[in-house]
Amino acid sequence: MSGAAVAAAAPRGRTTTGPAARSAAGPWLLGVRHHGPGSARAVLAALRAARPAAVLIEGPPEGDALLPLAADPRMRPPVALLAHAVDDPGRASFWPMAAFSPEWVAIRWALDHDVPVRFIDLPAAHSLALKEPAPEEPGEGPERAEHAQEEEVTPVVDPIRVLAETAGYDDPERWWEDVVEHRSPTGERDDGGMRLEGATPDDAVPDDAPGDALAPFVALAEAMSALREAYGDGGQPRDAVREAYMRIQLRTARKEFGDDVAVVCGAWHVPALAARTTLAADRSLLKGLPKVRTDLTWVPWTHRRLARQSGYGAGIDSPGWYGHLFEAADRPIERWMTKVAGLLRGEDRFVSTAHVIEAVRLAETLAALRGRPLAGLGETTDAVRAVMCEGSDVPLALVRDRLIVGESLGEVPDTAPAVPLQRDLTRSQRTLRLKPEASERELDLDLRKETDAARSRLLHRLRLLDVGWGDPVAGRGSTGTFRESWRLSWEPELHVRVAEAGVWGTTVLTAATAKAASQAVAATALADVTALAEHCLLAGLPDALPVVMKALADRAALDADVGHLADALPALARSLRYGDVRSTDTAALTEVAAGLAERICVGLPPACTGLDPDGAETLRGQVEEVHGAIGLLDTGAEPGTGLRERWDAVLHKLAARDTVAGVIRGRATRLLLDEGRLAEDEAARLMGLALSPGTPPADAAAWIEGFVGGASGGGMLLVHDERLLGLVDAWLTGVPADQFTDVLPLLRRTFSAYEPGVRRTLGELVRRGPVPEGARRDDAAPATGGFGPGLDRTRADAVEPVLRLLLGRPPEPAEAAV
Q1: Which of these, 270, 294, 317, 577, is most buried using a 10 Å CB contact count?
Q2: For 409, which DSSP code?
Q3: How far apart are alpha carbons 516 and 531 in whole angstroms?
Q4: Neighbouring-strand partners of residue 263
C-alpha cells in the first residue's frame, strides 16, 4: 500500500462520506485513540445519535461484574481495572481509564441510560497466562534474551505517527490535536463552545443526524484499513488472537441485540472486526491458549501513570492538558492560562491579569503563524515560557509537572472487590488519617504521640512487606529517637504489591509478623537477623520477636567472624533505644547484645593485624560503629557491668600496637581522645611515634587518615591544638621527595573532606609557623581569636555560667555566693 493511499484515507477535519457512512444501520465500530478527549467527545456524540441497544468495549470480560461500580458517585477517575493471577499476584495487568477516556465515557453513557455494556477483549485469564513473567534480574537466562531479540525483529507500528508523517507532520501529537482535538464531532472547528460529559443535555446532538456523528469513525476506519494492508499486524502477532475473540463476542451480541450494537475499541482493531471470517476460523485461533485463575478489581490510577506506556499501550505525554480540553466548558486557552497563573502565584511568582491576556494573545498568534486551527499545547507552552516565566524553563518545569502531566489520584468505592489485606490497609489509612496521594510529600512524626506512633508502625510494617509507600529520611528538626521523618508517595503498582503480600496474612499486622518470622528462619547472615530484629521493633511485631531472637541467638553462637559480629551489634544497640520511645520490651535483646559486645572485645585486636589497605579501611568503619553502639549499650546498662572499661582497654591496645594497621591505630587514638579517656600529652606522644622518621610514609599517612580524616571534626582538632598541627606539619615537610607522590592521594582524601573554612584556617596557621615555647600567639603574630597552643582557663571560666544556664544546671556553690 502506497503512502498516497494512506494519505487519501487519513481523516482531514470535515470529511465527505458516502452512503455507507451516512447509514444509521449498525453495528457501529467506533475506533478510538485510548485516552483521547477528542475521541471521547466523538464517542459520546455517536452514542447519543445512534442510541445502540448494547455497548461493547475493549477490555477483559471478567470485568463485566465490576462495570456497575463506574456509576457509583464515589468512583472518581482516573481509575484502572487491575487483573492479577491468583497464584502469582506479581503477574498483573492494568486497564487505566481517565475521565476523558472514550471507554470511560461509553461505560458511563450506557449505565446512565440502562443500556447493557460488556467487555469483549481476550479474557485476562488468557492474557496473563500468555504474559511472560519479568525476570528478577535484568538479562536473566539466555532464553529470555533470545526471545527479546526475536520480538525486536519486527518493530511495533504506531498508527498515529504513520498518519501524521503521511500528512506532512513531524509531531504525531500536533497532528492529532489539529485533526481531532480541535474539531467538533460533526467535523466543524471546535471553538470551545461544546459542553462535555455531565454538562451537555442529551439533545445536544440531533437524533435525526447519526451520520454526521458517525462520519469521523468511518474516515478513521478507512485510514486504519489502509495501514493494516500496508503493515499487517504492525508487529503485534498476538492481536490476531485478541481480534478473533472480539469477533466472536460481537457475533454473540448481534444474536442477542440485533445490529444495534456499538463497539468502542482501538482504531487499529476496527478493520479486523469488520473483516468477514468464519466462526470456526476464529475459534481455531483460540485453541490451546494457556489459562490461569485471575482476580479483578478497580484501583485508583494517576495522571502521571497515564503518561507512561502501560495498560492499553497508549501512554500520553500530557494527561493534564487532555483532561483540561475535555472538561473546559468554553474558552479552553483562556481557562488554561488562568490555571497556569494560579499555580505560579501559589509559588510566589508575580503573575498579573495582564500576563494572562498577553499569554493568550501570543498563543493565538503563534497558532495562526504555524497554520493551526487553534492554539495547542506547544503554542500555550511557548506563550507561558515567554510571558509568565520570563523565558526561564525552571518555573515552566513546575507547570509541566503540576498541570500538563498533573497529580490527580483517582478514588474507588469501598464496595469494589479487594484482597483482605488491602481492605485492612484502607481501614488503617482512614483511622490514622494517612490519605494516599500521588504527589510526593514529607511526613514528620512525634513518636511520643499515640497516632504518630501508630503511623510509624504501619509504615514500617509495609516496608517489611515490600509495599514501598514511604521511605524514612533524615529529620530536619531533631535527631532524637522520638522523631521520624518519611517521604510518602503512592503509586498504583503498590496495589499489586499489596496483593502479593496477601499470601502472608489478611491484615497488615499478621502479614508482617508471618513474613518476619519466615525471613528469620531463612536468614543465613547474622547482620540480616539483627536488622530484622530492628525492623520488628520499629514495626511493633511482638509475636515475631521470639522467632527472630531465637534465630539471632543461634546465628550469634555459631558465627566467629569479628567482622560479622561488628556489623550486627549497631542494629541491636539502636533497637535497645526503642524500649523507652515505643514502650517495647527489649530485655531479650540486651542479653544478646552484651554477649556480642564481649566477643568483639576479645576478638577485635587479633583481627586488626595483617590487613591490606581495603580490609583496614573496612575494619576502621566497623570500629567506629561498634564504638557508637557500645556507647548506647553503656548508657542503658546497669552499674558495674564494666562494658565501657573493657572497650576502652581494647582501644588502648589498638592504639599502642605497631602490628595494627595505621588507619585503625589512628582512629582508636582519636576515639579515646574525644571521649576524654586519653590525655592530650599521650595523644601527642602516640602521634609523634606514628610520624617518626623510622615509620614508612605510607603507614604514617594512614595513621593521619585514621586520626584526623573524614568529616568527623579532625580539622577542628588540628585548628585548636597547634601542638598536633605542628607534628603533622613537621612530618609532612620531612617526607622524602621520591615518596611524597605515593602518600599524596591519601593526604588529599584526608584533608579534602574538611570544610572550606577549616582548610583556610589551617593554611593560615601553617603559614604563620609554630608558636615558640612559652610565648602567646598574639606575641608572635596576629591570629584568629580563640586559637592557641593550650586551654585559656580564664576565658573558659567566663563561658561556664552561660553554659550552665543553657543546660538548666544550677550554679556551683562558689558562683552562687558571688
Answers
A1: 270
A2: B
A3: 11
A4: 29, 56
Q: Return the top range by mean pLDDT from 148-152, 374-378, 638-642.
A: 374-378
Cα Rg for the chain, rounded, in angstroms? 36
- The pLDDT, as a whole number, for residue 4 is 43
CA distance 594 to 598: 6
Q: Is the pLDDT of residue 198 over 60?
A: no
Q: How many CB atoms lie within 10 A of CB 81?
A: 24
Residues 475, 484: contact at Cβ < 8 Å? yes
Task: Return the pLDDT at 210.
Answer: 55
Q: Are 560 and 519 in contact (CB under 8 A)?
A: no
Instruction: Give the pLDDT score at 578.
Output: 57
Measured distance CA(486)–CA(583) in Å, rounded: 21
Are 264 and 107 a contacting pair, CB within 8 Å?
no
- Residue 56: phi and psi, rounded to 5, are -110, 135
Give the residue-averaged pLDDT of 210-219: 79
Q: What is the mean pLDDT of residues 189-209?
A: 39
The C-alpha atoms of residue 339 and residue 67 are separated, in whole angstroms, by 33
Pairing of strands 28-32, 261-266: parallel
Alpha carbon distance 693, 713 (integer Å): 27
Average pLDDT over residues 552-563: 76
Enclosing H/E stretch for 707: helix 697-708
In this structure, how many other beta carbons lie within 10 angstroms of the beta carbon of residue 520? 24
Q: Can the peptide bond before residue 78 be classed as cis, meaning omega within 30 degrees of 0?
A: yes
Residues present in the chain in total: 818
Distance of CA 353 to the CA centre of its chain: 37
Q: Quickly count: other Cβ atoms within 10 Å of residue 208's Cβ.
A: 8
- The three cell numbers of residue 384 are 507561558
**Number of C-beta neighbours around residue 314 at 10 A:** 19
Whole-angstrom Cα distance, residue 61 to residue 69? 15
- In sign, the C-alpha dihedral spanning 65, 70, 73, 78 is positive
Q: In what order do the strands lie in the sheet with 470-473?
A: 441-446, 483-488, 470-473
Q: What is the pLDDT of residues 76-89, one digit of tens each?
A: 999 989 888 888 88
233/203: higher pLDDT = 233
Of residues 328, 305, 304, the one with CA closest to residue 380: 328
User: CA 179, 180, 181 angle in degrees (round to 5)?
Assistant: 115
Taking all residues of the chain, what is their mean pLDDT, rounded to a whole number?
A: 79
Cell numbers describing residue 715: 580539622
pTM of the model: 0.67
Q: Which residue has the cell 574525644?
A: 674
Listed in sequence order, the residues at least 6 apart from 576 whose beta carbon sits closer than 8 Å to its beta carbon are 586, 589, 590, 593, 632, 633, 636
The rounded distance, in Å, linking the Cα atoms of 708 and 299 is 55
Handedness of CA 482, 485, 491, 493 (dihedral sign): negative
- Quick one: which of 46, 42, 56, 40 has its CA closest to 24? 46
Per-residue pLDDT of 688-744, as tens digits, reads 788 777 778 778 778 877 887 765 566 777 777 777 777 777 777 777 887 778 778
Tell me what pLDDT residue 24 has. 53
Q: Does the pLDDT value for residue 152 go beyond 90?
A: no
- Tell me what pLDDT residue 66 has: 93
First to last CA, the chain: 105
Cα 612 to Cα 497, 609, 702, distances in angstroms: 44, 9, 12
Percent of the chain with pLDDT over 90: 24
196, 41 contact by CB (below 8 A): yes
Sheet holding 117-119, edge to edge: 28-32, 261-266, 54-57, 117-119
Asked if 787 and 722 count as a contact pair (C-beta separation under 8 A), the reply is yes
- What's the Cα-to-Cα distance from 495 to each of 2, 424, 467, rounded to whole Å? 46, 13, 9
Q: How far apart are CA 813 and CA 809, in angstroms?
A: 12
